[in-house]
Amino acid sequence: MTRHLITSAIPYINGIKHLGNLIGSQLPADLYARYQRARGNEVLFLCATDEHGTPAELAAARAGKPVAQYCAEMHAVQAEIARGFRLSFDHFGRSSSPQNHALTQHFAGKLAENGLIAEVTESQVYSKADGRFLPDRYIEGTCPNCGYDRARGDQCENCTKQLDPTDLIDPRSAISGSTDLEVRETKHLYLRQSKLKDELDAWIDSKTDWPVLTTSIAKKWLHDGEGLRDRGITRDLDWGIPVRKGTEEWPGMEGKVFYVWFDAPIEYIACAAEWAEAGGLPEADWQRWWRTDKGADDVRYTQFMGKDNVPFHTLSFPATIIGSGEPWKLVDHLKSFNYLNYDGGQFSTSQGRGIFMDQALDILPPDYWRWWLLSHAPESSDAEFTWENFQASVNKDLADVLGNFVSRITKFCRSKFGETVPDGGTFGPEEEALIADLTTRTARYAEMMEAMEVRKSAQELRAIWAAGNEYLQTVAPWSTFKTDPQAAAAQTRLALNLVRFYAVLSAPFVPDAAAAMLAGMKSEDASWPDDVPAALAALPPGHGFEVPEVLFAKITDENREAWAERFSGHRD
RNA sequence: GGCGUGGUAGCUCAGUUGGUUAGAGCGAACGACUCAUAAUCGUUAGGUCGGUGGUUCAAGUCCACCUCACGCCA
């Protein structure tokens, strides 16, 4: 038995994520977690909300709520939606947890001890009216280049020129609009990850089985320009983890917090601690997942994320871990995804373009989305969502190939033999051929799932479903019943067993439908079919079942058109 | 401007270290079946593999240049 630690990139707190975010990390991570559990392996699957930083503060202000309360509420909302999509996290934590406070401060302290923290004094724009320093992009003014009057301090959106906040003419706070700004000196901590460049480089080189997407991004950051640059890990904000050196005060850093990108990945570890606490487990229980000196040396750790998150996961977070000098677990495999586009453009949170997770669940059950998104996962390049493709895929794959298979065989049996697995007859060459085919295909499916080849797994699973229809079409029990009822009984018995077999194999993709299929077959045997012939005899003659409700209703043209219209512009 | 990733049948995508007539699903046409959510199964049609040039006995697969899309960075 292998032990799998699996984490999904943690979604930011300020709002509900869209389907592009879902397929980029949480959903494929869930697929893999469910598969590994099904194979009998020990799994700890973690995710959390990423709660610190200016965007959270501003979103809270817009909502007229204290930021802590806002985050607590949004965490609850995201957790509920995650349940709606059947994301099987062992724990859905929060980067604002006490555990993450302690760990983040601990790591900072260790890094400082090891000479990997630099204190740098720099100039930043301070807004007196807002009583805070302003990040570059929260300063607005007139672009000195093109005259656009809403240019941001980091870049002019109109002429795309890169700017410094001090370049702006008539600068003002994007938060309050105040022009009462001044440049002040402030001290910040930098993670000297450049000192670890060679070590990181060698480590990445050793990961020959990672997706090209992952290693090419990491390599670029390592070698571009002057190479890996040091990065600031603190900010002048109220909302965040107070800067401390372990449990000690950090002289000169009073009132400052760690920058989100530093504390967010540490939440992967803290989340395990939260999980243990929530379950009333001792510290050792989570440490055996994370500390190689405390039992984690046989853990296989896999991270899932969108390509925008790759630099943090391949460089910054490993730098934090390696730099601590402590035996924390480093990631073993890093699966990254490209973007999902929506109908010719990008999904956009700010513009409300595309489909958001809550809206998706509003119109269809989670299995529909899980199947389409996973079978079209943006693995080798960006992928595109269109309503036509969604309707066609879901109707064909789920309703026609899988759903209708369950329907046709259970209803056929009910009408000819009753709601009981029929006895009699023996298997002939057709049955042997089907079993041999499924044995091959199941092995290939497992191989693809093991390799996290999401699309190829879906493709193989679909072929496994289709094999059932091919078999029925070939042996035609409705015909043989007239001349040889015993043969028809054997054929029907095998086909009914396929329903349970499909339920087990399909569960990682479509957990609700799988559960309905198992319930319909009145079986609780969801064990992985290591032995395919045996698995196809799990329901013995005389075993009772019920014809399940229609598993997947089809998406009509009217639905499709209405939804395409509804999601074309801004969300309400 | 630099770098990265892509550009393969109408659509969505596979194509291992270069090697026999380039594959799958959907869609289309035709046929079979009638148990089933007008579902299923089979057959067929469809591609000068973004463009040009080069290396090679042989290139979708390597090299150069060009072009388009997307992304990251200056």
From TrEMBL:
InterPro entries: Anticodon_Met, Met-tRNA_ligase_1, Met-tRNA_synth, Methionyl/Leucyl_tRNA_Synth, MetRS_core, MetRS_Zn, Rossmann-like_a/b/a_fold, tRNAsynth_Ia_anticodon-bd. One of its GO terms (biological process) is methionyl-tRNA aminoacylation. Residues 4-409 form the Methionyl/Leucyl tRNA synthetase domain. Binds 1 zinc ion per subunit. GO terms for molecular function: ATP binding; metal ion binding; methionine-tRNA ligase activity. Zn(2+) binds at C143, C146, C156, C159. A motif ('HIGH' region) lies at residues 11-21. A motif ('KMSKS' region) lies at residues 346-350. SUPFAM superfamilies: Anticodon-binding domain of a subclass of class I aminoacyl-tRNA synthetases, Methionyl-tRNA synthetase (MetRS), Zn-domain, Nucleotidylyl transferase. It is an enzyme of class 6 (ligase). Transmembrane segments: none annotated. It is found in: Cytoplasm. Its cofactor is Zn(2+). ATP binds at T349. Belongs to the class-I aminoacyl-tRNA synthetase family. MetG type 1 subfamily. This is Methionine--tRNA ligase. The gene is metG.
